[in-house]
Amino acid sequence: MKIKTILVMLLTTITTFAYAEGIDQKINESVGPVLGVFTNLIFYTVPLFGKQVPWVVIWLVVAATFFTIYFKFINLRTFGHGYALMRGKYDYSNAPGEVTHFQALTTALSGTVGLGNIAGVAAAVGIGGAGATFWMIVCGFLGMSTKFVECTLGVKYRDILPNGHVHGGPMRYLTKGFAEKGMGGFGKVLAVIFAICCIGGSFGGGNMFQVNQALEQVVSVTGEDSFLANNGWVFGVVVAALVGLTIIGGIKSIGKVTSRLVPFMGIIYVAAGLVVILMNISHVPAAFAAIFEGAFSTQSAFGGLIGVLIVGFQRAAFSNEAGIGSASIAHSAVKTDHPVTEGLVALYEPFIDTVVVCTITALVIGIAGFIPEEPVKGMGIALTSSAFGSAISWFPYVLTIAAVLFAFSTMIAWSYYGLRAFNYLFGHGKAQDMTYNILFLLFVVLGSSMSLKAVIDFSDAMIFAMSIPNLIGLYFLAPVVKKELNKYMAKIKSGEITQSSN
Fold first, then answer.
1. DSSP codes of every residue in 19-77
2. CA 346 from chain center: how many Å?
3. Mean pLDDT, to the nearest integer, of 412-428?
4. Cα dihedral sign for 138, 141, 146, 150?
């Protein structure tokens, strides 16, 4: 009864706000300064070789480098085996869990492959030049190791309820993993901090920002005088209805949708990129040359070697979310008896997100001749659209479809992440699930009808704040992962684990 009362109060409050005039301005004026303190703390910049870089980027990249070395380049030596696992070569129907390796991967990918791959690359190239692409790829390569660690732990310490539902992710391995080391209290504090940030991030960066940017691209194609331009809430209601139909079924429903949607939207975008590249095949060598020369040029107009490196690392870290911990929530639902198998599958997430998709975007921008000669801030989806449109006049329409699909897939993935964090704090049950899902859907509508810059910036900061407790846990629990890896590889080598007949 208490939850219903709280829900009614929240619905009344949000409805009142929704019909108030100047809501954007009122919220930004009232809470903007408070939210700004937290946002500025997370994205606080520190000097590095004469350049200013957000400390959270250093935090993420250093961890990725450490895990790559600690696990002896796991991102290279097990790449082939991870592919076999993803294809279901080692799947067994009687293994505990809710989804297949492929469904778990696509669910996690749906949360990372998104508007950042379209607009983020353009922003990196605009500020750092073609060379930033090279360092994005390097960062994506290193991030593969971080994903391996966090997703292995997600399965290792997951809880499987009597009804078969799986609850995993940082909340579980921070609590249970630290308890094994006699630091249960510290682990509990880290888990609570992570859960709070995850819920906040799911409402903003994983929800409001996505639907807001998707609507912006739709309006850019349909025109400023179109119906949706002045009635964004209608777009929000439609998207909320579609999201609701998907998330009500839980991770199994989400997995089924993403296993079809992610490959489809990926094929649309990658195919369009390859068409542009093939139409300009003679310019490809020059584009690659510009990427490599820009990456190592100490005299670059974009800030020299260190400046270009920082821009590339920053955009890659923000794109693939390696170290954030969110993806391990989705990966933990996999059907497997061996936790390390999902870690090996998760290696592909930063590879597909950063190495493949981002590289194609950068190549298209490069061969189309849209790389500026001087640093330009604020470049995003418009630059990508123009680059594609130079070869395919109707591409803005394809980009609109891709943007909407990317936004939709990101929202359903983050709804699951937020729900599991909500369950950790408030318990399991239909009432708790319904409360969170209704709130999430309401924020979809709000995101399509308001800008709320301060709130969205704050939620983005919360997403990256998740990396603080998460990476502390990964450092402490890395030996556990190494033990799991050695045990699994020994079984593979001895023939105790063989490919299934699937």
1. TSTTHHHHHHHHHHHHHHHHHHHHT-EEEETTEEEEHHHHHHHHHHHHHHHHTTSHHHH
2. 13
3. 87
4. positive
Highest-pLDDT range among 309-318, 341-350, 365-374, 384-393: 341-350
Judge residue 58's burial from the number of C-beta atoms within 10 Å of its C-beta, 0-12 exposed, 13-18 middle, 19 or more buried: middle
The per-residue pLDDT for 178 is 94
| Chain segment 245-262, per-residue pLDDT in tens | 777 766 666 666 666 666
CA–CA separation, 153 and 148 (whole Å):
9
CA 256/CA 103 separation, integer angstroms:
7
SS3 at position 405: helix
User: Nearest 5 degrees, angle CA 10-CA 14-CA 16?
Assistant: 120
Q: Determine the longest span between alpha carbons in the chain, in angstroms.
A: 69
3-state secondary structure of 160: strand
The CA distances from residue 51 to 34, 299, 308, 311, 378, in Å, are 28, 15, 10, 10, 19
**Residue entry with tokens 């504090």:** 189
Res 92: pLDDT: 60
In the predicted model, what is the mean pLDDT of residues 375-400?
67
**CATH domain 42-494 topology:** Amino acid/polyamine transporter I (1.20.1740)
Q: Whole-prediction pTM value?
A: 0.81
C-alpha torsion sign, points 98, 238, 407, 266: positive
The answer to whether 229 and 223 are in contact (CB under 8 A) is yes
Integer Cα distance of 52 and 1 in angstroms: 51
Alpha helices in 248-358 (DSSP H): 250-279, 284-296, 304-320, 327-331, 339-346, 348-350
Region class of 129: left (phi > 0), else alpha (psi between -120 and 50), else beta = left
Domain extent listing, the chain = 42-494
How far is 208 from 309, CA to CA, in rounded Å? 30
| Of 200, 153, 168, 160, the residue nearest 473 (C-alpha) | 153
Q: How many CB atoms within 10 Å of residue 286?
A: 14
